[in-house]
Amino acid sequence: MGKWHYGVVLDAGSSGTRVHVYRWLDNAIALKESGKHDLQTLPEIKTKSSWVKKIHPGVSTFADRPEEIGPQHLAELLEFARDIVPEDAIKETPFFLLATAGMRLVDDIKQRLLLDHVCSYARENYDFALPDCNVHIQVIPGVTEGLYGWVATNYLLGSFNSPDSHDHGKNHHTYGFLDMGGASAQIAFAPNATESEKHANDLTLLRLRNIDGSTQEHRVFVTSWLEFGVREARRRYLDALKNAIGADNVKEFPDPCLPAGLRTTLDGKPLEGDTERYLLGTGRFDECMRGTYPLLDKNAACLDEPCLLHGVHVPAIDFDVNHFVGISEYWHTTHEVFEMGHTDKAYDFNTYQHRVEAFCSQDWESIELGISEHKWGKKLDHELAYEVCFKASWIINVLHDGIGVPRVGLEPTSSSSINGTKEVLAHGKGFLDPFQAVNKIDSTEVSWTLGKMVLYAASQVPVEVEEALPVGFGSNVAGVPSDFQYPSAELFPSPQVLHNETWQDTLFDGGSSRRIPGFILFVFIIVVASFFLCGRSRRLRLYQRVRNLFQRGHSSQGQRKRKASGAVKPSFFGTHSPSYERILEEGAQDIELGGSDSSRSSFEHLSDTDSTAFLPLKRTPSWGQSSPSRLKFDHDNSSSATIGLGITATPGLSSIDRNGLVVRTESRDHLTPLALGPTTNGRRSRAPSPSRPHSHKSPSTTPLILHD
């Protein structure tokens, strides 16, 4: 391993897939290069803007054609990553593909099939480290995505490494995180001390490791709202719009969220020729705001107070100490159009809403002219102009009526005058406004994929004590909770299950902690297997040798005691004069086959039904091949001795005639030996089966006996 470690993460979103390549120093080198004050810091993750590549569409579009995702989608991204990572580091570079909300909407069977194709393609064509596809290639829940985003934001702002420089009061130094994509929206923040204690069971424990081996622990609330991303919200809005108008013969649907005079298809696409039904923009932004408000579902039942959107529980947010950073659509919608180049200014509700209203109230011809003249920047094209008014109204409603962010510019707040990314880095105190939309911090894009890589890099820091708690996250309980999520399959406590470790690796790998007990288990399995395969005659000889050795080591008095006890050698090893008892099925007749000491030579009360159970069977060498239904295991007679599988032994019988019915019906290998026990007149009594008709019972009936 060289100086640098690398990691590759594919963010498989709803609209496209973006590959990120990261690197960090080997921990031994990082320790040497760090000063004493830098030892209790997390590994320093580096990336470049040229190490990011995004392609369209999203992986979910391959759900019905999974065999195409490799050559038509993954190949371009993985080739890009392979060109960046040095050749000698590729085999040690972990590869992750983590899908988000777009794939969460795909049914489970198609999800699994698609991810299996991703795994097989990556393994067959590339040498990146992919120890377990179930861990490295998966659809992550929204809460995991939100937690990774929270880690990335606080990592870039420096609140993990320099908490004193980000003191927001009330012993609070971290920032809240807001993310909105096309299909879902997430929130993650550390509540103040009062709320953390009140809602401790709702928090997630996050554990990180500094380069000196010390740990950091944070307790974060995180939740996600599926279908609250801008694309899914727009779909729900249009469904409500069509349902409100209702009539099937209506051709034109007025839409206040489109610029005046703009006509689009019902799904917001440009019109091409005549169409039966279309949207007509009216450019009424105030009506658009009122139309999108019901989508927040604020009236949903709240089973666990307090709640924000859609009846989802969220601890109360203290905006004096909880300062939020928003990415993705929070940035694109508020800055790429309406900030008009002023990207280092904090979000100001009053200024922002005036700019939105001014843009959306124009007719479509004026907007088209402004686009051609780059009046709002080069990023605003026709497609974005179709959507931006709806997106702006949705963002405003979510932030202020949904989450409750104070309306800076309209409502009094105690926020600082420090605004924007540049001031954060210059003053070292962070964002002190209730909300700030960002795209990059210190020239690094804020992406949840960075949070994933911070966790992975921290987990690779070696520890000197085995009792050190692992890196990852789970329920807010002490130690390692049962649902703890490790950053990689290599870190799981049972890698032979999750990492597909073979038994050869476990037994013979010199670095395995399970080598000695595994070797003992291996030898035991070989001995047992050899014992069963050696055959009855060899087992008998082995038994005799062991018995002889055992007898030589005991006194003659001990031998007399064994003879007096009447112990019988188990038939499993073979014996000269074993005795067996055959127990019939319930409902069959008790039949005694006469032996040398019995005068009974005929069957009593044998019906036609009973006789069918005694058709001759082919003898087989293995007792396990006979049908178990031909033996009745007696567990109810507690006064008699039982051996082996629980078949009750018949005492007092030592010689059995092998002539007769039993020889024709059952292999002797299928029967279990008898042990001597209490007797009654030389025979053990057994209660008749309750299912046997009374008319068939005979006081002289005895169990069917076979002598060998």
Automatic annotation (TrEMBL):
* Keywords, sorted A to Z: Hydrolase, Membrane, Transmembrane, Transmembrane helix
| Species in which this protein is naturally found | Aspergillus cavernicola
User: Transferase among the record's keywords?
Assistant: no
Task: Please identify the protein, giving its name as recorded.
Answer: Nucleoside phosphatase family-domain-containing protein
Q: Where is this region: Disordered?
A: 554-574, 617-637, 664-708
Top-level taxon = Eukaryota
Gene3D superfamilies linked to this entry: 3.30.420.40, Exopolyphosphatase. Domain 2
Q: Does the keyword Transmembrane helix apply?
A: yes
Q: Which Pfam families match?
A: GDA1_CD39
- Which parts pass through the membrane? 516-535
Q: What is the lineage of its organism?
A: Eukaryota, Fungi, Dikarya, Ascomycota, Pezizomycotina
Family in the record: Belongs to the GDA1/CD39 NTPase family.
